[in-house]
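User: Structure please.
Assistant: Input sequence and predicted structure:
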Amino acid sequence: MALGQQSISPPRTSTFGATHAGHNVRQHNLVSLLRILHLDGPTSRARLTQLTGLNRSTIGGLVSELRELGLAVENGREVTPGPGRPSPIVEPRPEGAIALAVELTVDCLATAVIGFGGQILAERRLVRPRRSVAPEEAIEEVARQIGAMRRSWEGAPLAGVGVAVAGLTNRLTGTVDFGPNLGWRDVPLSELLSEALSDVGVPEQVGIHLANEADLGALAEARRGAGRDVDDLVYVSGEVGIGVGVMAGGQPLLGAAGYAAEAGHMLVNPDGEQCCCGAYGCWETEAGERALLRRAGIEPSLVGGEAIAAVLARAADGDPVATAAIEATGRWLGLGFGNLVNLFNPRLVVLGGLYHRLFEPLQPFICAAFSERALRVSADMVELVVSELGDEALLIGAAELALTRLFEDPVGVVRCTVTA
């Protein structure tokens, strides 16, 4: 569904970072194949030759090296019309290198084992009552879940641990500096998590990679979801608050420490409600879950999916209060989207979280408000879509972050095998 005109996606480019200086040509070429297999999945040798510009003998040697490293297998051959021999199909081997992924949000604590190529090998998810949770309690649950999945990752090369957190995360220090909806401040999460995971078999030298949950949602949708062919997108996820992640030119927009695009706390109503961050009139106070439920008159005991279902049921029955609540929330969302499109000029806005579930009733009101706020030249380029990854987006994004090391040093990662 287009907010303005239907967007025309630019040619796809890799969203991985550039090869580090100092890597030799063979290492560069090996990593190029890894990137293609990771993002595109099974690919014929002939197609790898086309994509990389390398000759067939070079591709053959690189594929052999990937097989020796346990990162790829060859199963079957591509059948093509015309003369010539069928080309072998090269497939990523998920167990060849894995990431441990963690999601820490207000309503949910989840972990997963995700392999090279993006396959989820194991997953645990705990939907918990909404309340402030001590960091120590959350870390203990993460360690318990990862320990329970140990048979699915033990003995595999471990690239890293990626953590998606609902809060301001400092990538330089590995701390959660401010998680207003979690009730966290200045939590040295990387350090504490490294200590806890060492007790369930994760070596302390394995890197813990921390990031804001919306940033990782954007990364996941760009690589494996609705934005696979788009270099410039904005991901907006709503639960208790509003999280926003931005991909610009195929790269995450992070800021100096990782705080960029905290659009849930941009001022939209100077006379509005006080936000959990301490300010007044933040976008999430007008377009977040609490605002919707307050307007709909939903009893405080209902939260999360149960509360959203109650709003939708009342609106479907013709309740004017619930219908008005959806309209007001949609209009505030559209206003915020107008700001984001004016700021970042994306080709795609992806809705996750509760907005994914509320998309159909919100859509007309979002579009009406958006058309009043966004610059026409930018609005005509952008398309609004729902997340393709749904509840898995944050874990997939966390895994993508953790697997970065594989593309910096594939041989080093493979040699670092987790043992009992």
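The chain has three domains: 25-92, 96-215+394-415, 242-388.
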